[in-house]
Amino acid sequence: MRLAWAAVALSLLPSFTEAAQRPRATGKRGAAPAAAESGPDVFAGYSYTRAGDASLNGWEVTGAFPFRGRLKLAVDLSGHYGSFAGADLKQLTLLAGPRQAWQFGRLHPFAQVMVGASRSTTTVTVADGTFSDSTTGVGVAPGGGADYRLTGRWAIRGQAELLFLRAAGVWDTDPRLAVGAVYRLGH
Amino acid sequence: MVGRGSGSYLSVTMVALALVACGGGGPTSPSGADKLVLRGVAVGADGAAAAGGGGVTAQAASKDRITVTIQGTSISTTVSGNGTFELENVPTGAFTLVFSINNTVIGTVTITGVPTSGEVKIVVRITGTTVVLISLEIDDNENENEDQDRTCIIHGGKIGRKIELEGNVDSGNATTFMMDVNGNRGSGLVQVNAAGAQFKCNGDKGSPNCKDSVKPHAKVHVSGTLTTCSTSAAQVVATEVKVQKAEDGEDEDDD
Lengths: 187, 255
Known about the structure:
The complex is a heterodimer of chains A (187) and B (255).
Chain A: H1 2-20, H2 34-38, E1 41-51, E2 54-68, E3 71-84, E4 87-101, E5 107-126, E6 129-149, E7 154-167, E8 170-184
Antiparallel strand pairs in A: 1-2, 1-8, 2-3, 3-4, 4-5, 5-6, 6-7, 7-8
Chain B: H1 2-21, E1 36-44, H2 58-62, E2 66-70, E3 76-78, E4 84-88, E5 93-101, E6 104-114, E7 118-126, E8 131-140, H3 146-150, E9 162-172, E10 176-181, E11 189-193, E12 198-201, E13 219-229, E14 234-245
Parallel strand pairs in B: 1-7, 11-14, 12-14
Antiparallel strand pairs in B: 1-4, 2-3, 2-5, 5-6, 7-8, 9-10, 9-13, 10-11, 13-14
């Protein structure tokens, strides 16, 4: 898992470095409509998280709304599901926070810090019934990612976060990954 | 080259994301051929039937972190916020899990018949002061350990697997009783731990007096998990006990 995270970080790094060396070299070919870039966008896609010791898969939906320059307010809702040791796990998470984005041709990297809450439900079914426990935690999730613009409105996105979650007296460090499509709502 | 660089790096990123998402380290993926991994879930005391709802996790009940240690070793971990925990390289044969809060032991669970590789899955229910085993499953990588069959008094019985037994109560009561298994399936008495089991009586389902009919000579059908088994003894944690005929209905000795 750590190796995979390192691969993600390393693969992103050259993009930033390369782009930084040619700050205004964005060609006309890749130029996006300014209004669209500064407008709100909506992301929906597949998401993976490592919640505690369990690997969960699910969905993630994010809305980002501009409020100052390239700074946006991102609101993220996700649901992750899976099983572990015979128990069914479900995690619903709502996060919100500022996102700073940059533009290098078709590539739009961003960094963000979000805070919010997560509700985890563990269900165990045995012959004589079903046990179901829930707990709510609060946390902070720094992370980042990049959009790769396909058309004026559509892009694909890959993003990674590390959710530091305080739940029931324990701090968990849960990595989250997501890939999916972005639609820009600007004029 | 420069113009295409960011695109190719993005592709690498996406591939990396996909590889990670598609199962690296997932619970269902093999964790190494020779590794023995224990994966567990701890649920809280109030985790009653789902319809009841309102349960809290083990941590919420204790408000402190719960530590799981394998007795006599330094192998230890903390139960996460959602109740999951995982221990790697656990001993083979048998070991005891010690659950503690702030270095105070709240309970132990002993697991026997542990193979040399594979996965042990357990679910426990934790209150402030007790630990109760709810389910245990052992998946070995040794392709059905047939030796285990031959060394267990219950024919076809596998430790950690679900089991159905039929026979007569030899001694004990509704909490714990010794059972004489019907026919050739068992070659000795089986100890049945029915403290957490649901009881049903034929023709009188859910009767509050059903437990009282678990007496010597009563004919019962037990559903549960085989927790230990040797050539001389076996233990089953029952999830359901059906009393098919109470002691009064004697002459139903199936031997």
